[in-house]
Structure formats: C-alpha cells, structure tokens
Give the backbone structure.
Amino acid sequence: MKKYDFAFIIHPRDKQELLKSYPIFRFIPNFLLYFISPRIVGDIVYKDDKGKKLNGALIAIINLPFQFLKRDNKIKKRILAALKLASKIGAKIVGLGSLSSPAVSGGLDIKDQSNVSITNGNALTAAVVTDDIKQLSKIVKLHKKKVHVAILGATGSIGQGVVHSLIGNVDSMMLIARKQNKLDNLNNILKEQHPDYDISISTSVSEAKESDIIIVATSHYETVLSPEDVKSGAIIYDITQPSNLKKEDWLSRDDVFVVEGGLIRIPGLHVDSITGLDNEESFACLAETLLLVLADRTDQDFSLGYVIQENMKEIENIAKKYNVSSLLKAWDKDTSWGEIKRFIKNYA
Ligand SMILES: NC(=O)c1ccc[n+]([C@@H]2O[C@H](COP(=O)([O-])OP(=O)(O)OC[C@H]3O[C@@H](n4cnc5c(N)ncnc54)[C@H](OP(=O)(O)O)[C@@H]3O)[C@@H](O)[C@H]2O)c1
C-alpha cells in the first residue's frame, strides 16, 4: 500500500459532481451513500527546490453536503472511517476539508476517537480572509469615507476568528448568522473589548444591504445571499465550499464583484484536478495541513473548533517561510487587485 505524509478530506460539492465520478448513483437513493467506504481519489504532491518531497492523499467521503450538515452520528462515523484510512496509509495529520469540519464542530466531536492528528485548517483560512479584507477595505477607502463590512456566518469557526482580527481595520461590522444566542454572545464579548466600535448583529441576511464588502463564511449547501440583498458597487468575498452563492444569480449583476477567496498559491504544490485547483493553487485549509507537516507540527491536533488568534499568527509565520501568496478568483478565473481597484473606482 502506498504511504502518504498527510491526508485531506473532501466530498462531492453537489449531486452533479458526484454523478460525474460515479454515474451509477443516478439510480441509487442518497441514504445508500452511507455504505460506500471513504476512498483515496487523488494525490497532493509538494516538491521544493532543494528536492524535499511530500505526498498527501485526497480522501473522499462519498456523501452529499446536506448529509454533512445533519451533523449526526452517521456522518461522524464516516469521518472517523476516513481518519482510520488516513492512519493506515501513514498520514501524520489530516485536514478536515469542506463541510467535514462543520459536521463535527470543527473537529471537537471526533478528536478523542482519532488516532491521527487533525486540523480543520481554519486558522490559515481566517488569516488569509483577514489579510484580503484589509487590502480590499484600503482600496474602498480611497473612494469612500467609511467602509462597512457584513460577515455572513460571523459566529462560525472562521467567521468569529475573522471578526476578532478585523475589528478596528474597517469602520463598521454587521454580524449575521441564524442563531440569535450565538450572535448575542459574540456581540457581548466584542462590546466589552471595544465599547465604542460600530457593531450590529442580525439574523437576517438582507441586513447586508448597506455593506461595501460582504464576506460569505456560512456552512450551508444552498444559496444564502440573494442579489436583492446586495447594493450596487459592493464586493462579495466568498470562501464557502461548496459555494453558498448560485452563479446564475450574479451573472446579470455587473455592478457587483464576486471574489472567490480563502485561496492561496504555494510554489511547488500540485493538487489533483478533481478539486478544481490549478498548479500551485490551494484552499487555505488544505495548505494549513501541508504547512504543519513541513514545520514538523504533526505530533498533536492544531486547529479545532473556533479559530484562535495564536494559531492564526503561528500558521501565518510558517506560511511566510514557504513563500505563500494570496490568490483571488472570480468565477473560477484568476482575478487581480488591479481588476478589483478598477471596479471599485467605476462604482464609487
Ligand atoms: N476556502 C477555504 O479554504 C475554506 C477553508 C475552510 C472552510 N471553508 C468553508 O467556510 C465555510 C465556513 O466554515 P466554518 O468551519 O467556519 O463553519 P461553521 O463553524 O459551521 O460556521 C458557519 C457559520 O455560518 C452560519 N450559517 C450557516 N448557515 C447559515 C444560513 N443559512 N444563513 C446564515 N448563517 C448561516 C452559522 O450560524 P448559525 O450557527 O447561527 O447557523 C455560523 O455562523 C464552509 O462553507 C467551509 O466549507 C473554506
């Protein structure tokens, strides 16, 4: 059996993606997916210019996004089975990709049953999002007196990490999620630490309407944001996997710029094309897993549950050593800060 240094868990982003790889499932009811064993579906190869090489395995759990978000024992067992496979092939650490992290509270629900170290990859993701939004808000500020940012999924693992590190870098924040009690808790903490800061909370996505930048960090499998909730000239920064935006909804909105974020470029990395990633491209959460192997930090779990600021700093410092750089896409095509600057100037 081929041995690997690390593994990263993925799953089909929707039924169409599942059918592309396994057409037979057109005739099989969804509940039978729970009986298909997790499997290795591709390689992650990292080679540096000094000849160091690491091999990672992409382990797919063949379940659909809605099944992960039931957050029940059935899906937990599937994630544990994937971890068992990872341990068998020699992986020192496993990254919980896409909805395999929200399904088990960012890894907290399974950490005691895993015999391999795990990370949800959210520390580097939150760090990348924060950096990108700081940069974006600087550009918006060239044309506007104040920058208003809405965070959809603000109470989540990544969302609250971003909120804490973004505070003070933009003029106001609208925090949006479904559960009022979680919003209240976060709001109380922030108000205590930053009593004069302009923070609002809401359970209604339409409250994003006045925002210049909207971060989409929700864990859902359907669209959470509609075009009527977004003003002309706004930038949407989406990190969700699978995307919580429906492309068709936005194609007629030339006055809104949709950026796919939470992505980075790592020299020497190649991830199997099943992920939709090109050469040297990575999801920040996958990159966190690889970087922990490079830094020899696999003896224990890293990011679990909510993102903590110390982890964000530590993984950012590791990332700097490996020349990691920011990557922005717009509907699967590379975009640039220059393009975004031109858009913002046009609609200012
Ligand atoms: N690009 C990358 O590299 C990368 C890396 C890691 C994760 N991700 C993606 O980032 C997203 C967030 O991950 P996470 O681990 O932070 O998830 P999480 O901890 O489950 O948090 C999700 C947040 O979204 C909110 N939410 C869920 N459904 C909603 C809805 N319909 N309307 C409004 N708010 C809703 C939740 O609030 P309630 O609790 O109130 O529902 C919570 O605040 C996922 O899509 C994940 O796949 C991307």
In short: The radius of gyration is 20 Å. DSSP finds ten helices and 15 strands in the chain.
